[in-house]
Amino acid sequence: MILGRILGIFDGLTSWFTPEVRSQLLMIVVGSTIKGVIAGVLIGFFARQVHSLTLGILFGLAVGLLLAFFVAHMQHGYYFAIMLPGGLVGLIVGYATQKYGESRLPTPSRS
Predict the structure, then answer these.
(1) Per-residue pLDDT tens over the stretch 25-65
(2) CB count, 10 Å around CB of 3?
(3) Is residue 76 packed enough to be buried (19+ CB in 10 Å), middle (13-18) or exposed (0-12)?
(4) By C-alpha distance, which of 45, 48, 49, 43 is closest to 91?
(5) CA 41 to CA 31: how far, in whole Å?
(6) 75: Cβ contacts below 8 Å, ≥ 6 apart
(7) Are 90 and 60 in contact, with CB atoms under 8 Å apart?
């Protein structure tokens, strides 16, 4: 969730490269941060259930692209500019949750 929030901020800041939307930069960053948190929660929940790096990355990518698609659809455009960073956020969070996330599997005790 924290990684999703941080990457969501950077996702929103990429809108700076689209001059037509620079006046809405703050709103875009806030929205992207919320989108990143939602992605982090969904991907983190998936990671707790499924312990596969490949599936985690693919699920993260799918969640990131789907959330970004909804945002792009509401804007009636900018699909590539919105979906590319959104997909990357999902991909990175999916990787990180599988690679570095905590497992709920019991660990054997050493006596």
Answers:
(1) 888 888 888 888 888 899 989 999 998 999 999 999 999 99
(2) 21
(3) exposed
(4) 43
(5) 16
(6) 82
(7) yes
